[in-house]
Request: fold
Amino acid sequence: GLHQPTNFIQNIINADLEANVYGNRVHTRFPPEPNGYLHIGHAKSICLNFGLAAQYNGLCNLRFDDTNPVKEDVEYVESIKSDVKWLGFDWEDREYYASDYFEEMYQFAIQLIKEGKAYVCDLSPEEIREYRGTFSEPGKESPYRNRSVEENLDLFQRMRAGEFEEGSRVLRAKIDMASPNLNMRDPVLYRIVKAKHHRTGDAWCIYPMYDYAHPISDALEGITHSVCTLEFEDHRPLYDWVVRELKFENPPKQIEFARLNLTNTIMSKRYLRQLVEENHVEGWDDPRMPTISGLRRRGYTPEAIRDFCDRIGVSKSNSMVDIALLEHCIREDLKMKVPTVMAVLRPLKVVITNYPEGQVEMLEAENNAENPEMGTRLLPFSRVIYIEQDDFMENPPKKFFRLSPGQEVRLKHAYFIRCEEVIKDEKSGEIIELHCTYDPETKSGTGFAGRKVKGTLHWVSVEHAVKAQVRLYDHLILEKDEDDQDGNADFKAKLNPNSLETLTECYIEPSVSHAEPGTRYQFLRHGYFNVDPVHSTKDALVFNRIVTLKSSWEK
Ligand code: ATP
Ligand code: MG
Ligand code: MG
Reply:
């Protein structure tokens, strides 16, 4: 049979199944913090976690890691749910919130205090950092480290009751101030935050830290394999400490994989938020954003994003993926699926002087050259048409196979035309229209073989065309950035000032006239386009360019 190669995570799961560590259970989770919109990096984690569950007949939870009330909001919860669904994954009734475990987490902390494994520390955040030491020197023990259990219980309860100021006290695990791993030097478990939480309101003024809340949430949900990104590798001993000291049976195990980094964009929520707040983009769903909502609005399909996540695979070492691969995936997905239509983005008027005035011919045109099952449509042809300004040159260089004075080209699905005269504005000298003649013998589909032309142009009939706005997008970030983006705060210097070009006078063949938001097309010779769900209206269509037709990836 076929050998399916396995990745290192599947190898770990296979070994656990073999050793009966969790019986036959495989249970993963996707744990976003609701402090922003999901991006394509999250899609990798979603595909991985839900994909593993599906592959092993297991389960995957959606868990909101909502332990930081200052940055979180229900708006983000809602967007995350709709993005995960849109990507094609279903958590069914397994929607969880770390905040639902606040009481249990608190009781576990009491347990740790009673066992002498946690203490209330009055050092300031700066002092805690200072006492922690560095990689090369051991830490110093807090003067509060040896408080009695009774005093710790009393102080922790009063922390919860709101008696102390933010930053005045924390609860810390009592582990090892000399550990070579800084995360094990009495890490903070709880801090005081006097902010309203989007779910628990004012019920709490102490909040658990990620490193404490995450393993507990995993264990309470019966997670077997807790997959996270590589930056948490150094936190794994603490994860293991928490589940061990709290005596969970069959505790979950943390497995780290390399996060997705993509060229020509930024991916950290922190920086994406900055783009939104400083109005560099229209919002989290701006079609230039690498967010799921931005990609969706741009016209990306869930299939293309899932295919991309499959192709990049999972590994243990960080690397940079070329954004051209993502663009390749959407082309591959759309090429057989969407109709090809003719759209003139920068119009130049052409009058076909020997074509009878008032005559309209309906020409049969295939909808998708690569997929005959998509059938044909009728396309109106008449005496006055638009072609692309770029498709005409008055003084062409050699090998210019488009239209120029005296030259002949084919109009796609229609006839050969020859340029007879260039009409210019008397004052400015600007070309305002061309006068051409057509040869009725050359009608497309009749098998005319009398002579050949080298160029085929797209066009639309002026009288029948739909006027639309078309938005052309380019990459957000100009350089390919090989640096770790999290350590790179100067991304704004590399913002592409021309990432959006708006064309307001485009003409598209009438078959698109009733296109609903989210309808995708190939515009012949231009690329793939989507009806923008935000700006498009029935009477004024707005199209987003999803992607151009070719890229260096495919050359
Ligand atoms: P960011 O740094 O963009 O804020 P995050 O890791 O803080 O991302 P979370 O909401 O905590 O965002 O992420 C939820 C899950 O998605 C985590 O398990 C995280 O590891 C994973 N994830 C986030 N970014 C990436 C990425 N670029 N590649 C793969 N997985 C990612
Ligand atoms: Mg996080
Ligand atoms: Mg983050």
The chain has a mean pLDDT of 96.
